[in-house]
Amino acid sequence: MTDFSHLNKKLQPSIVDVSRKQITRRKAVAKAIVEIPENILQKLSEGGFNTPKGSVFQTAIIAGIMAAKKTGELIPLCHPIGLENCKVDIELTDRNEIEIYCTAEVEAKTGIEMEALTGASVAALTIYDMCKALSHNITIKEIKLIEKTGGKNDFKRTE
């Protein structure tokens, strides 16, 4: 027997059976950090959020929300859920970093941390895409779950 929830007794991939689980209010917050070179930081700090492709942060926010809504289509064994709330916040720091927070909420039998992680990830990738014309020396340093509530276990990262 395995402890991995997405493997059945024959150790084959399997969607988790949530048919007997209770519906609970679920919320998750994920964070991504994008490290950018000084020239991009300077452009963004000067209000240069607009590129030929559009507004960097506004586009990343929309991309993050759209991705969170499609998580069940992107992650093979993730249940599709009707996302009830999703918010993406983006902050430019003085450490040549952009911090992205994705908060997702739902009342369901399963889920929500994968939606928050997917939203933060795609928002980070969108920032990379929109800024790569200035430099390819951009690093998506970190993507992690900060906290989740609802379901079997709550989680809060201690940093």
Task: Chart the SSEs and their pairings.
Blueprint: E1 24-35, H1 38-45, E2 50-51, E3 54-55, H2 56-69, H3 71-74, E4 85-92, E5 97-108, H4 113-131, E6 139-149, E7 155-156
Antiparallel strand pairs: 1-5, 1-6, 2-3, 4-5, 6-7
Short description:
The protein is built from 4 helices and 7 strands.
Describe this structure in words.
The chain is an alpha+beta fold and 159 residues long. It has one domain: 2-Layer Sandwich (Alpha-Beta Plaits), CATH 3.30.70.640. It is 28% helix and 31% strand. It has helices spanning 38-45, 56-69, 71-74, 113-131; strands at residues 24-35, 50-51, 54-55, 85-92, 97-108, 139-149, 155-156. α2 (56-69) packs antiparallel against α4.
According to DSSP, the number of beta strands is: 7
Task: Report the portion of residues in β strands.
Answer: 25-35%
Tally of helical runs: 4
In the CATH scheme, the class would be: Alpha Beta
Largest sheet: 5 strands, antiparallel
Low-confidence stretches: none
- CATH-level-4 superfamily name: Molybdopterin cofactor biosynthesis C (MoaC) domain
Number of domains: 1
Question: Terminal Cα separation, in Å?
Answer: 33 Å
The CATH topology is given as Alpha-Beta Plaits
Secondary-structure-derived class: alpha+beta
H/E series, N to C? Answer: EHEEHHEEHEE
